[in-house]
Amino acid sequence: HVQLVESGGGSVQAGGSLKLSCAVSGFTYSCVGWFRQSTGSGRQAVAALDTDGSTSYLNSVKGRFTISRENAKNTVYLQMNSLQSEDTAMYYCAAGSRIRAWSRAADYDYWGQGTQVTVS
Fold first, then answer.
1. Which of 48, 55, 93, 114 sits CB 3.0–4.6 Å from 33 for a disulfide?
2. Over the range 50-71, which residues count as b (16 or more CB within 10 Å of their CB) and which as e?
3. What's the pLDDT at 106?
4. Cα torsion at 103, 112, 23, 84 (round to 10°)?
């Protein structure tokens, strides 16, 4: 039974920080990605982490967001600093075993339920 459980969303003032967590179970993945979707917009890739340790980021979050993994807990984190109103969205984590393009949502096999991030 595959599960991706996100947590850590919330409301924060501009300039603040949040740390999202994605606990993955029941699936051997090669890559975990974080996506976001705001009202009226499509799903946007934010960051991804391969099992070899390589990372990828959306240009607008480089230097502010950091994706990392804690192997013992099979959990992937997204540390978000210097948050801006434009970062407001529902954030989803996704896992895939055959990722061709980290930013392509269709490449991912499983998705979490999402966690809301609101920056005011």
1. 48
2. beeeeebbbeebeeebbbebee
3. 96
4. 60
